[in-house]
Automatic annotation (TrEMBL):
SUPFAM superfamilies according to UniProt: MetI-like
Matching Pfam families: BPD_transp_1
Keywords carried by this UniProt record: Amino-acid transport, Cell membrane, Membrane, Transmembrane, Transmembrane helix, Transport
Record protein name field: ABC transporter permease
GO terms, molecular function: transmembrane transporter activity
Lineage start: Bacteria, Bacillati, Actinomycetota, Actinomycetes, Micrococcales
The organism of origin for this protein: Paeniglutamicibacter gangotriensis Lz1y
GO BP, sorted A to Z: amino acid transport
InterPro entries assigned: AA_ABC_transptr_permease_3TM, ArtM/GltK/GlnP/TcyL/YhdX-like, MetI-like, MetI-like_sf
């Protein structure tokens, strides 16, 4: 006799699960404390009449201030271009096989890194005291140093040549980060050293070079304030001219500071995305953007991929 049994009911083939992230109350408490202290500081700054916020609003878009921003950006671009180009040349010289070339590059880097940039600016500005006429050792050439070395020229030479010393070390570190086998393989294929450096080594070294170069660009923007001592009409000097006339020192310094913060913030955003672009070849997953980081911070549940789901 055959006994028929009813088949057992199976559970649903598809179950939806979720992972609940561990609670971290310490993070929220520390964040709340920081926000509270930040609000207290902001309230103190906003309500303090000594900052002269009405004066800040009056001069924030003043014509001379805007012109000063233009000069600041112009100096930043020109000096960084000089620093990057000359820095690459010096970096290649530092790793050259010729000991004389290596020594010359080392002496350049040592001199410009060993002396304050303000001293270098003053030196270039007063170059005519040492060389009233510039001949370059060429017969028939006699140039007036006072006419050539203007305040703007002195600022470009002082900042650009100083920046080249720092950029050379950054580029050299990037070149040394590339495996030596890359150069050896290029040499085995008959590629000369110049082409190897330009087409193989430097493109791979960009992942190491770009982040500190972005920091140097932001630092250069702020370093342009030093040229106010040689009367270059950049942002800080323009603010100084105004408060020397109105005696509103703090409000005008706040105007300059706010503009520096705005420009450096824009440069920081650009630096972030340039770094993200060059990180493609060295990382399996790109770093999260600020918006993605914020979403990850406030998210509580992480959905799991469903297993055995039928489409």
């Amino acid at each position: 006799m055959t006994i028929m049994t009813e088949p057992k009911k199976t559970a649903s083939a598809v179950d939806e699960y979720s992972i609940v992230n561990a609670r971290h109350p310490g993070r929220w408490i520390s964040a709340a404390v920081i926000v509270f202290l930040g609000l207290l500081l902001l309230r103190s700054v906003v309500t303090n009449p000594n900052f002269g916020w009405s004066t800040v609003g009056m001069y924030i878009r003043d014509v001379s201030i805007v012109r000063g921003i233009g000069v600041t950006l112009q100096l930043t671009v020109i000096c960084m271009a000089i620093g990057i180009v000359l820095g690459v040349v010096l970096a290649v010289m530092r790793i050259a096989a010729n000991p004389v070339v290596r020594s010359a590059a080392y002496a350049y880097v040592s001199f410009f890194r060993g002396t304050p940039v303000l001293v270098q600016l003053l030196f270039w500005y007063n170059l005519a005291a040492l060389y009233p006429s510039i001949t370059f050792g060429i017969p028939g050439v006699d140039l007036d140093a006072n006419a050539i070395i203007t305040p703007m020229t002195a600022a470009i030479l002082g900042l650009g040549l100083n920046q080249a010393a720092y950029m050379s070390e950054i580029v050299r570190a990037g070149i040394l980060s590339v495996e030596n086998g890359q150069s050896e393989a290029a040499g085995a294929l008959g590629i000369n050293r110049l082409q190897t450096m330009r087409r193989i080594v430097l493109p791979q070294a960009m992942r190491v070079i770009i982040p500190p170069t972005g920091n140097e660009a932001i630092g250069m923007l702020k370093a342009t304030a030093l040229v106010s001592v040689i009367s270059v009409p950049e942002l800080l000097y323009s603010a100084q001219i105004i408060y020397a006339r109105t005696f509103e020192t703090i409000p005008l310094l706040m105007v300059a500071s706010l503009w520096y913060i705005v420009v450096t913030s824009i440069l920081s955003v650009g630096q972030y995305y340039v770094e993200r672009h060059y990180a493609k070849g060295g990382q399996r997953s790109l770093p999260a953007t600020p918006w993605q980081q914020l979403k990850r911070f406030v998210r509580v549940h992480d959905p799991l991929a469903l297993k055995g789901a039928k489409k």
